[in-house]
Amino acid sequence: xxxxxxxxxxxxxxxxxxxxxxxxxxxxxxxxxxxxxxxxxxxxxxxxxxxxxxxxxxxxxxxxxxxxxxxxxxxxxxxxxxxxxxxxxxxxxxxxxxxxxxxxxxxxxxxxxxxxxxxxxxxxxxxxxxxxxxxxxxxxxxxxxxxxxxxxxxxxxxxxxxxxxxxxxxxxxxxxxxxxxxxxxxxxxxxxxxxxxxxxxxxxxxxxxxxxxxxxxxxxxxxxxxxxxxxxxxxxxxxxxxxxxxxxxxxxxxxxxxxxxxxxxxxxxxxxxxxxxxxxxxxxxxxxxxxxxxxxxxxxxxxxxxxxxxxxxxxxxxxxxxxxxxxxxxxxxxxxxxxxxxxxxxxxxxxxxxxxxxxxxxxxxxxxxxxxxxxxxxxxxxxxxxxxxxxxxxxxxxxxxxxxxxxxxxxxxxxxxxxxxxxxxxxxxxxxxxxxxxxxxxxxxxxxxxxxxxxxxxxxxxxxxxxxxxxxxxxxxxxxxxxxxxxxxxxxxxxxxxxxxxxxxxxxxxxxxxxxxxxxxxxxxxxxxxxxxxxxxxxxxxxxxxxxxxxxxxxxxxxxxxxxxxxxxxxxxxxxxxxxxxxxxxxxxxxxxxxxxxxxxxx
Length: 603
Ligand SMILES: Nc1ncnc2c1ncn2[C@@H]1O[C@H](COP(=O)(O)OP(=O)(O)OP(=O)(O)O)[C@@H](O)[C@H]1O
What we know:
Elements (H helix, E strand, L loop, with lengths): L1 H14 L1 H22 L1 H7 L12 H13 L5 H46 L3 H6 L2 H42 L1 H48 L1 H6 L3 H51 L4 H48 L6 H4 L11 E9 L10 E9 L3 E6 L5 H8 L7 E6 L2 E2 L2 H9 L1 E4 L10 H6 L7 H10 L3 H5 L18 H14 L4 E5 L7 H14 L4 E5 L11 E6 L2 E6 L1 H6 L4 H13 L1
Parallel strand pairs: 3-8, 3-9, 6-7, 7-8
Antiparallel strand pairs: 1-2, 1-4, 4-5, 9-10
Helix pairs in contact: 1-5, 1-11, 2-5, 2-7, 5-7, 5-11, 7-8, 7-11, 8-10, 8-11, 10-11, 16-18
The chain binds adenosine-5'-triphosphate.
The site of adenosine-5'-triphosphate has 11 residues, from helix 13.
GO molecular function, one term: ABC-type transporter activity
Main location: membrane
Keywords: ATP-binding, Cell membrane, Hydrolase, Membrane, Nucleotide-binding, Protease, Thiol protease, Transmembrane, Transmembrane helix, Transport
């Protein structure tokens, strides 16, 4: 409930005046509806069903009548009907206005929530993503956000129904306090009884959250690994997993349907009993006059469905509470994990780009992916990456090369030791400036499902046509892009042209270069290229020598022959460091052994 109230307070902060106006409108609409009902009495009098004195002692009706009689000499049927139309017509128009206002308010609120969550995720630290499952974000952004939306909508509807009920009860009290108290007591007893259904619904809601999380994670993983599934004939295994999960989801929804319909049945049956008992008590015991009885029965026959709706909505609302809790937890986590704490300028990447003069230095840096794990991914690393030179990082798989690269890019921060850029610790301002100047090409490069032009211009929106082609020429991709049906405007991705791994690497390299980076980071960036293209790119990289700092991870040692410095890693530590030739000549060293293994393999 605390979590629900948190979001309602947020709704109030987001909508302020509109929320107050909305509730005021609901009040007016409920009052008009009550007045409409009151007019039934003079109407009954008009057609001779009631004596004039019958309503003389009813404050509201007699008051309205006195007022009307001041204006009109005689109360005609036509006049009462015109009033009736005016009141209920006005109420219908106000209802439309209120519903529009409420939709606008809720949609505005959900847009803000969506934006906040999306932005919070984008600006979260990289380490947060290392710990989380991507499908959980998908789940939060679509499913849970939808449930929060639905929950807030339900809450607002309950407020509307609650206010309406209160006003109608107030009017009924005016007419007959005793009868109203009788009905209210019965309603309260039912509400107490209904609590068990609300608790049951809450349990169902918690299960729904868990199941939908599995559902999203499963779907995402299975379709990402569809090639694996097909080539290993794993379809039956996954089908049975899916069937199990679908059945659990089905059972869960049926359980909720069962709880909801059971409580509805009890409410409906009790309402029939209540009305029977109510009529009996009023006629036989309280000797209530017919006109009062008619009016109260009319009011309660409109009220009781609202009671039932409130109970049903409460059950639905509590099934959404786990989504409120999850959403609030994510919001808190994102607040703590926010990386961009700088001002507007830094967030928009408008600060001056870093021009590295000395380079990057690691001093006694250690890093663990899990703080409680005994295994260090990086152990006491002390290295210097000189500016405007090419440094290569080599080592066996799992040695810690990519982790070191992430550290140099400021994506992860050291557990102990420090990273300095031009002698300044890589934090805040310095970190943002460095990131602005990084061109990064990963092993499995990612391109958006957009045109090549769009993908390139993402990092350099002002780049001219010539600059785009120049970058493509650099990455040896000019020829194949020209041969595509729409050239630069060819859309790449699932439903467009599928590029090979090597072609994707080359486009991403072009994009990295287009940014005119201070630090070019290549993580196995040419691993998918054929020898000819790799040679072309090596020559192109050679031409950058002296103009930018380049850090390369390479398994194929032939590709780093021109590196100014080679760093050899093993089990998270730097075990050798020096020029390519120098390390190659050290026969006892790990690097020359790695070289021998590779040349042996290629023989
Ligand atoms: N997200 C992660 N969570 C936990 N451990 C991780 C994570 N990423 C890497 N590791 C561990 O850290 C160690 C170093 O991994 P890293 O990816 O840096 O090695 P690498 O030298 O780049 O390997 P490769 O050449 O295979 O890419 C490995 O033992 C790996 O299991």
